[in-house]
Amino acid sequence: MPRRADTQENTNTAEPMEQQVPFEVTITEHNPERGVLATADVKVGNMMTIRNVKIKEDDYGLTVTMPRTKVPHAEQYKDSVYFADKSMKQQFDQAVEKAYQENVLAPVLDQDEAEEEMEQEESAGMNMGM
Fold this sequence. Notes:
Blueprint: E1 23-33, E2 36-44, E3 48-58, E4 61-65, E5 68-70, E6 77-79, H1 86-129
Antiparallel strand pairs: 1-2, 2-3, 3-4, 5-6
C-alpha cells in the first residue's frame, strides 16, 4: 500500500483575520494651509512614523489624506505611503479622526459650554439683585 503524505487541514477562512496595530496620533498643526483642517504624525506600532498626514473636510465629512509626492516629469501626485489592506486603512483613518476630534474639536466645544454657563450665571445673578 503506498504511503500518503500527511496533509494539514486548511484552517484559513474566506475572510482574513483583521490585525490590530496600535496607532499613536499626534496632531502637529491646526489649519496649516487652505482646505486642510490639521496635520498629524502617526506612529504605527513600533515600526515607523508617518508624517504630514492631512485631515480635511469635504462633502462626506472628515477625510484623512496620506502624504504625497510629485511624480517626476508629470503633473501628478501619488501617495507616499499606502496600505495593502483596506481594513488597516480604515483603522488608520479612524485613529486619526478620533485624535483630531479629541485634540481639536473637544476643547472648542468645552470652551463654548463654559462660556454659556458663565452667561447663565451672570443672567441669574442680575435677576437676583432686582
